[in-house]
Design brief:
This protein has helices spanning 40-47, 63-82, 96-102, 104-107, 130-140, 186-206, 258-270, 281-287, 338-349, 377-392, 406-416, 447-460, and strands at residues 20-21, 51-55, 58-61, 86-87, 93-95, 113-116, 122-125, 149-158, 173-183, 212-215, 225-232, 238-243, 273-275, 293-308, 318-320, 326-328, 330-337, 366-370, 397-399, 420-424, 432-437, 442-446. By secondary structure, it is of the alpha+beta class. The structure holds adenosine-5'-triphosphate (ATP) and magnesium ion.
Amino acid sequence: DWKETLYERKFSKNLKIRAMYLSKLFIPLLRETPSDAKIKSHQLMLKTGMIKQSSSGIYSWLPLGFKIMKKIEQIVREEQNKIGAQELLMPTIQSAEIWKESGRYDDYGEEMLRIKDRQGKEMLYGPTNEELITEIFRASVKSYKSLPQLLYHIQWKFRDELRPRFGVMRCKEFFMKDAYSFDLNDEEAKKSYNKMFFAYLNTFKRLGLTAIPMEADTGPIGGDLSHEFVILAETGESKIYSDKRIFDIDISKHNGEDDSINGLRKKYDEFYAVTDDKFKKEDFEKKVTKENQLVTKGIEVGHIFYFGDKYSKPLNCSVDLQDGKKVNVKMGSYGVGVSRLVGAIIEAKFNNSIMKWPESVSPFEIAIIPSLQKNDKSNYLKAEKIYNLLIKNNIDVLFDDTDEHLSAKFKKFDLIGIPYQIILGSKSTDDKFEFKEVNGKTETLPLEEIKNKLLNKKSLN
Ligand code: ATP
Ligand code: MG
């Protein structure tokens, strides 16, 4: 078979990208929609082999899903770094001791997975890290001169949720970015809070989402200032009440300077936007005119808290001030559901049975979809030439080298969701190819032009 001789070229040698031949990609597509999957993100993720359930609420991430999650993680990381947060990595398993010190060991209840090591020492799989980061901080920071500090990590968490459901949206083991701020006083701490507020808006925007900060209850984390970042979705578990004008705020006018960030915070504070637990009918009616009232459902993708000395006090985390007095540091914590975001983006972008990943997180930048029925060798060689050229230009491409009928290929790619396609079918010639933007227009263009378009888009992302 003439294809056999090409096998050694089926993995990209360009290590910057993970371009692939579809026949070689580990992507266990399902024909049927699994009946236990109730919402579209869960269905799509199973159908396109992004994840596989390992046990209730616990999933393996297969190559396609993993690649997308890693891209989301990287954007989250970059926006944290931009505001001066420093990345570290804390373990998943924690000692029960610090949780006893903070008083949360008993409060946290059944959601915490408690385990013992062989010496009988009480351990737990971390559901969050306020205690552990406070312990790290108190052991190493002694002086006011080291403040402020913003630290974060991106790590697996475990919460033994009562009813895991909706796939990666509410599961037991999930991937979270959690950051912690340390400041000398309330005023400084609010600056850190606002910085994080700004970073979150930028993060979600880069992920192609409009996430609205909603005033929220602080729940078991504690404190008095908190926002949930919520994206609108029918399948969301959070009920939200807002002034819909809050959706029109343009964050691109604001930069990372303190004044600019505070200005942005003020704009958001002008509009009523709260989650269920904070909702008061009288306030809503009074502050929002009828035509601007929006009552709907959303998915919480991030949650930020300011809780002052709630943990630093019991855990005795203090620094020396200039005059020798000691003060408990003022802390906040800031979470982003990195793995939940994979599902949330699907809920937001999968419409009329067509998925289109935002370019920033798409598993591949473009798909080459040639008609290869009856072993169409000339189409195959053309497609391969395109593939090689794109790789040379660091464009991450998926080449559908299977011999399925074109219509079957299109159906498949409707689900995989790569935003651009080069189609080699009846309309392409020797030097011009169909270039299709999913949910957009299709043009017949020379390869050079397609390449340049892609490179331009890349530089914008
Ligand atoms: P929820 O109200 O949805 O239970 P939470 O308030 O318990 O969330 P946080 O402790 O603030 O969540 O966690 C930070 C982020 O982690 C959340 O905004 C969410 O995106 C994500 N997250 C929380 N619990 C889960 C879960 N069980 N499965 C997947 N992601 C989760
Ligand atoms: Mg919450």
